[in-house]
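Input (phosphoenolpyruvate--protein phosphotransferase):
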Amino acid sequence: MLSILRSLVQEVNSARDLQEALDIIVSRVQKAMGTEVCSVYLLDPASNRYILMATEGLYRKAVGQVSLAYSEGLVGLVGSREEPINLEDAPSHPRYRYFPETGEERFRSFLGVPIIHHRRVLGVLVVQQRESSRCFDEGEEAFLVTVSAQLAGVIAHSEATGAISGLSLTGEEAHDVSFNGVPGAPGVAIGSGVVVYPSADLDVVPEKPTDDIDQELALFGASVKAVREDIERVAKRLASQLRPEEQALFDVYLRMLGDDAMPGEVANKIREGIWAQGALKQVVQQYIRHFEMMDDHYLQERAVDIRDLGRRLLSHLQEGEQKHLNYPERTVLVSEELTPAMLGEVPKGQLIGLVSVKGSSNSHVAILARAMGVPTVMGLVDIPVNQLDGKELIVDGFEGQIFASPSSDLRSYYQAICDEEDELIRGLEVLKDKPCETTDHHRVSLLVNTGLMTDVVRSLSHGAEGIGLYRTEVPFMIKDRFPSEQEQREYYREQLEAFAPSPVTMRTLDIGGDKALTYFPIKEENPFLGWRGIRVTLDHPEIFLVQVRAMLKASEGLNNLQIMLPMISNISEVEESLHLIYRVYHEVREEGYDIHMPKVGVMIEIPAAVYQIRELADRVDFLSVGSNDLTQYLLAVDRNNPRVAQLYHSYHPAVLQALVRIAQDAHSVGKPVGICGELAGDPGGALLLMAMGYDSLSMNAASLPKVKSVIRSVSREWAVQLLEDVLLLDSPHVIKSCVDLALRNAGFGRYLRPGKSAATAVSEAAVS
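Output:
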């Protein structure tokens, strides 16, 4: 069964559209299970009805015609219960619903399993048999459940492809197709999608026609010639080192590239009017499917050779195409994985939004996007990237959502949000030089998180009092090697000078997890629990010592440097780090630099550190909570994973209790404590943190004006009472609602994102 399932998934994955995928499913499952009927019913989001979309065994004329209400019939029962239903005599069941047009009165045995993807019921997969004596056994039921689970993502992807093209399952016009990811940079953008494809990846090559068949044939012919020459050159160079059987592998490649082999089939596809890259993709995937379904292990392995040849040909095709993208005035850049280089290709002033299938809110691109003020959504699952090219898109960087083919109502709704944001920021500019102080004179320092000089410029214009977190890994990320001491010194001096005499807190190199350096790869099965942060730099003191030396020299004459150690989990890491810092300090002083010993602090972002606050505070000058990592470690949720993103919540009672404890323990030994993370930049979160006693809040520059406005308008007594109220609650969603309600009642409703979904807001507006 496993081999059948594997070949089925491979075949469905390479289907050209949803209907082809469904037809493959019903045909292969019917054959594999030896049943008379296999059908797929999909739930249409527009009508909330199940529609018969494909069948093998029922009358074909019923496809697209038969539909059931959400809870109607046995299909509706399977969907509403979200579990399999296995019956020997289906017509005798009280929920049985008969449709004459299907011809299913002949079949009595029934097994239906739900197709569920990310908690959403997509449809129901059904098999039926004529004999009432046959009951599908446990093994068959388990197989069908496995098939359903494996194919749910493929169906969701194909369904989304059709919806983005503007059609619902029923063939009616579709609008407001939404996809959920993770917020990369806040804000809203409305513009045209421009898809940038990674090189030599056949899976993401879009299907599109060509008007110039001769040019496409010439491009493909040149690619075949180039690849053939590459292989002949390598074979010749290695001839003396290879045995005859190994040398024969090159001959296999060359035979595959013969005119009467794969290239001939690609050329025929091009003559049918398909561009060369799309034709290559179709033929290669057909070959791969063919080889992978064979029983012979040697022949199965040839699929790897075909895939490799396909990539080589595509790479040459992409070079030969020399295509320059046209960027519209309002460009939303879309890619499987955005890179900083891609951002740099867009003409200045035309990039308004970013969408990346891969990546996280901590990736270099997300950091750049926040610095540039470009709304960004990352980590999107099941999004058909190649369908977004040229489409009008709405990027909601607050909620981590994108909308394709928006209706005029949805467009107006989001345009209003854009206008309100612009107006709000302009209105808050008057607060730039005013202190962040409550109405009862409680003072809080508002700092910023930075990584680039563009961050600094925006931070100064928003009235930041210093840098609470300078991400020193950014200079490392934009290099193709470790930056030298002098290069680091120049980066650090820029930041220190810009804010002098205000404090600048520099976090030592924090790589690992989801922050990677191309020239220093860290490959681990569980990177967030692996080699990252201080663990890396203590294992490589040559990196740590050079960085600290560059920081200290950069601070000469300014003396506003503070050093912060990331990912501390035990006291020995702090003591070892301090030993190295003191050693460098004395060495730099001996070299003649007139510097002061900087304050040294630790980041509290691992649960173990929460229970060692007093011991840590005895050894350092300050503490700073990294609320993003602390939240994900406390909740065991990767916040960059869209599959579990709904479980990541900064207002979780356990997170708030931990934050209260940290502040109390730090102050009990007389040490200042700050926080840098998304919670500090949220107006409601900032109020709770102030009430807990945090001395400083560090955030992205864009959040600073709103946070300052809210804090200056309330008393600390009011905030403390709000904190006491929410600490009695046990649901993060209820806590968030309670905080939002308090802000609305205090007159800050315009600072909050709408509590309801965009689609709900639009439909309510239409009704009223």
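The two ends are 55 Å apart (CA to CA).
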